[in-house]
Amino acid sequence: LRALVSILQSWYTLFTPTEATSIVAATVMSHNTILRLSLDYPQREELASCARTLALQCAMKDPQNCALSALTLCEKDHIAFETAYQIVIDAASTGMTYSQLFTIARYMEHRGYPLRSFKLASLAMTHLNLAYNQDTHPAINDVLWACALSHSLGKNELAAIIPLVVKSVHCATVLSDILRRCTMTAPGLAGIPGRRNSGKLMSTDKAPLRQLLDATISAYINTTHSRLTHISPRHYGEFIEFLSKARETFLLAQDGHIQFAQFIDNLKQIYKGKKKLMMLVRERFG
Questions:
Q1: CA–CA dist 177, 183 (Å, integer)
Q2: Which of 14, 102, 158, 222 has its CA 20 to 30 A from that of 51?
Q3: Mean pLDDT (the chain, rounded)
Q4: Which of 61, 60, 34, 59 is nearest to 46 (CA)?
């Protein structure tokens, strides 16, 4: 026991922060170690306390690689857990990537802290930039999860995350997927016990969904022009399907059918040189 305590207390002379949290502290805290050393309760507590101190020191030194391990090691001690969470929040703006923050946010939700999870997911969104053509980006599932989480918490959280989504995500298909999911059920239905929710579906003509709808329509228009600059005949069919998807989104706006008709007329004018493609557009959309 004394040797282990000594190793934990002088970890920085022996290990990197990542080694110290993921291997050393985890091994010391394991059930096997407790059995092998036949530790009584005070001894176990002493060891756990040293491991938590190590975890917090490592998280301060290298939040990117140690924050999640530190939270896990500090789970059973309220004050240490709070401290580890605060280290993550402080490091979020400078030293963490969106994928690390999303991972910790999902962990927080799993531990039963939905509002903290929401805060971390919001911070993760501010680091993300999803371009118009990145419809297979690895972060898409995290974005959809973050939006579902905020939707489940209620209208205020949804209203807080939508501007972040609009700023970070420029991919039309991802935006329309988020919009569709938000309009299918009322926000707050899976939220916090005791939190009131109206059970009313949200209108795409009012805030906060209006901003998301406008951004999605905008993304479809910009992506259409980008795709048409370098389109080859073998992609015509795929492009027509893309426009059909765009129409579904346009139609969520009150004057959507007029907007979409104008958009198609505009395309026919600008790209009239692409005769075969414009013929296909006319066949499908008039």
A1: 10
A2: 102
A3: 94
A4: 34
Cα 137 from Cα 140, distance rounded (Å): 6
Going by the DSSP 8-state scheme, the letter that residue 77 receives in this structure is -
Q: How far apart are CA 131 and CA 239, in angstroms?
A: 18
Q: For the chain, first and last CA: distance in Å?
A: 80
Q: What is the DSSP string of 126-180?
A: TT--B-TT-TT-TTHHHHHHHHHHHHHH-HHHHHHHHHHHHHHB--HHHHHHHHH
Q: How many residues does the chain have?
A: 286
pLDDT at 189: 67
Quick: pLDDT tens for 45-98.
999 999 999 999 999 999 999 999 999 999 999 999 999 999 999 999 888 999
Q: Measure the CA–CA gap between 37 and 50, rounded to whole angstroms.
A: 16
Quickly list DSSP for 265-285: HHHHHHTTT-HHHHHHHHHHH
Sign of CA dihedral 77, 82, 88, 90: negative
Residue 190 pLDDT exceeds 60 = no
Q: How many CA atoms lie within 13 A of 107 on its CB side?
A: 18
At 169, give phi and psi (nearest 5°): -110, 120
Half-sphere exposure of 89 (CA within 13 A, CB side): 11
Q: Which of 243, 216, 215 is nearest to 228 (CA)?
A: 243
Burial 258-282 (b: 16+ CB within 10 A, else e): eebeebbeebeeebeebeebbebbe
Mean pLDDT of 104-108: 98
Residue 53, sorted as left (phi over 0), alpha (psi -120 to 50) or beta, turns out to be: alpha
Structure tokens at 245: 């998807």
The 3-state secondary structure of 192-228, one letter per residue: CCCCCCCCCCCCCCCCCHHHHHHHHHHHHHHHHHHHH
